[in-house]
Design a protein that fits this description.
571 residues; mainly beta; Immunoglobulin-like
């Protein structure tokens, strides 16, 4: 199939104070996509140039458009002088194709994952996900839409003409330093971009327009609404269409979240209005609200940022004549939505967000960090959670900090069950892969881990405030298949096996006067690693595993009375 490439039409040099036509990202279609990651410069401010990154250009990234069930290949060519990665945010793919920090693309190298599109129609996105390098590379321009269509969505009477009545909008706030360079992990993110355009304007046809909203910011949440009080209609969340449209005047999105909305501009030709963030209405504790934290537990310079807690314009809209065959109505009924059944859940898991003490004398700032999950900071060589294939789980996220964290999990979509012990609002129904967890509050969601397993390549879960992620507020999980005829370590029977997972050694302790006579250690695929017979009575043995690769192993313990198998995890 052909791959179509459209070029940005906005001028490279733009003025910070002038209004600039909104750039519509170029579109790529087909089944093979070549994505050249490169560096360059842009002139955002008169008389200065700013180093930037882009894909197939020097600034920002094209939109990839595919259909459900397509089998695709993505050739990511790293033309930078530094390593990068590329994560397909929200897509259900095998871990080795996911583009997390373990899939490094070195300079002058190409990474070519191939996979089938299994997601339903929705708005996804792609961006780097390197350990400690997400914020620098996303902020400098490596952000792109990844749009999936399917038959059910294409049959709806909603806009489908990309760039005409189906408009992607990627919102980012950035900080520039005194040299007009993009600053990383700064609090003065007062430069507002949409699709890489500073101070943008858009000519909207006088008909129903579909906006695909992406919060691609490193920190800031937005509370979307229109300056004239215009109603709009949410039709999709992160991972797919809703069953019915939701009538709104406000919609809050935290970093990483997406939503699709329909706006009816019919009969409004010649009018002007603004798409705004009504940050004055956001709850404190969310980055972008009036305040985050209190006293010594607060964010330095936060109150100096004039955007925080105020209402501001993101996009100026001029309503122009309709197209020859416009859509002028809003559908009420959309697609079938069947959430996961909580009765099928067989595992409950809790992830606690809290500060991490780097030294015993440290007193971490509960609004600024450093933060971790379950009292751990991210480690490339560790596995934090073990999940089993085809299991349905309920995860509870507990936020013990004073800042709201948008939690993102790779591989799957989930359904929010509770927020603060209450059912979620209508805007957070449906399929999600990011959810905002408020300070000193909790969120519960249900999901299923299907299709993909790998005993050595993990997926990630993390905060999507990018400098939190880069500073270590991230964990990893393996999806494994259950070995046959194997006892889970939670069913200890005659033995105790600990620690499990482990990165150095396992201890096996016999209970109830049982004596261990021999043991066999094998890989998950049946390869023998060690076979040991013991020639004296042993009630406790230690098995070193520091030389073993990360993954799952089978331990067979022989005693005078019986033989038992256990699953052991090397992290």
């Amino acid at each position: 199939m052909k791959q179509l490439v459209f070029i940005f039409t906005t001028a490279i040099s733009i003025c910070a104070n002038a209004q600039n036509p909104l750039a519509i990202p170029p579109i790529l279609t087909g089944t093979t996509f070549n994505l050249a990651v490169q560096s360059g410069t842009q002139s955002f401010y008169t008389g200065t140039t700013t180093p930037t990154f882009g894909i197939n250009g020097t600034w920002m990234s094209p939109t990839i458009v595919v259909n459900k069930d397509d089998s695709i290949t993505l050739n990511v060519i790293n033309n930078l002088t530094v390593k990068t990665t590329m994560h397909w945010h929200g897509l259900h793919v095998a871990p080795q194709h996911d583009g997390g920090p373990h899939q490094i693309i070195n300079p002058s190298s190409t990474w070519s994952p191939s996979f089938k599109i299994r997601n339903n129609a929705s708005t996804f996105w792609y961006h780097p996900h390197g350990a400690g390098q997400t914020d620098p590379q996303v902020s400098k321009g490596l952000v792109g839409f990844f749009i999936v269509h399917d038959a059910e969505e294409l049959a709806l009477n909603i806009p489908h003409s990309y760039g005409i009545d189906d408009i992607p909008l990627a919102f980012q706030s950035k900080e520039f330093d005194v040299l007009q360079q993009i600053a990383i992990a700064g609090e003065m993110d007062t430069a507002l971009f949409v699709n890489g355009t500073l101070n943008p304007t858009f000519d909207a046809h006088a008909q129903v327009i579909r906006f695909r909203l992406l919060n691609g910011s490193s920190l800031r949440s937005y509370n979307f609404g229109f300056s004239n009080g215009q109603t709009f209609y949410q039709i999709a969340t992160d991972g797919g269409l809703l069953d019915t449209s939701i009538t709104l005047t406000r919609l809050r999105l935290s970093p990483g979240e997406r939503a699709e909305i329909l706006v009816n501009f019919t009969g409004m030709q010649g009018q002007n209005l603004d798409l705004k963030s009504f940050a004055s209405e956001m709850t404190n504790g969310i980055y972008g609200a009036d305040s985050v934290g209190t006293g010594i537990d607060s964010i330095p310079e936060y109150n100096s940022n004039f955007l925080n807690g105020t209402d501001f314009t993101l996009l100026k809209i001029n309503v122009i004549a309709p197209t020859p065959i416009p859509i002028t109505t809003i559908p009420n009924s959309l697609v079938t939505y069947t959430p996961f059944n909580i009765a099928n859940a067989t595992k409950n898991r809790t992830i606690i967000f809290d500060t991490i003490r780097l030294l015993p004398a440290d007193a971490p700032n509960r609004a600024e960090g450093p933060f971790g999950m379950n009292n751990k900071s991210f480690d490339m060589d560790s596995i934090n959670e073990i999940v089993y294939l085809n299991t349905t789980e309920v995860w509870t996220l507990v936020n013990k900090t004073l800042v709201a964290h948008p939690f993102h999990i790779h591989d799957i979509q989930f359904n929010v069950i509770e927020k603060g012990g209450m059912p979620p609002t209508a805007t957070e129904r449906g399929w999600k892969d990011v959810v905002l967890v408020m300070p000193e509050d909790s969120v519960k969601f249900i999901t299923k881990f299907d299709d993909f397993s790998n005993d050595s390549v993990p997926y990630m879960y993390h905060c999507h405030l990018l400098h939190h992620e880069d500073d270590g507020m991230m964990g990893s999980f393996l999806v494994l298949e259950y070995p046959l005829n194997t006892i889970d370590i939670s069913d200890k029977n005659n033995f105790s096996v600990y620690p499990n997972p482990s990165s150095n050694y396992w201890i096996i302790k016999a209970n109830d006067n049982t004596v261990i006579t021999a043991y066999t250690l094998s890989s998950i695929d049946g390869r023998l690693i060690n076979n040991v017979s013991l020639y004296q009575n042993n009630s406790t043995i230690t098995i070193q595993n520091s030389s073993l690769p990360v993954g799952q192993f089978i331990l067979t313990i022989h005693s005078k009375n019986n033989t038992q198998n256990f699953k052991l995890i090397k992290q």
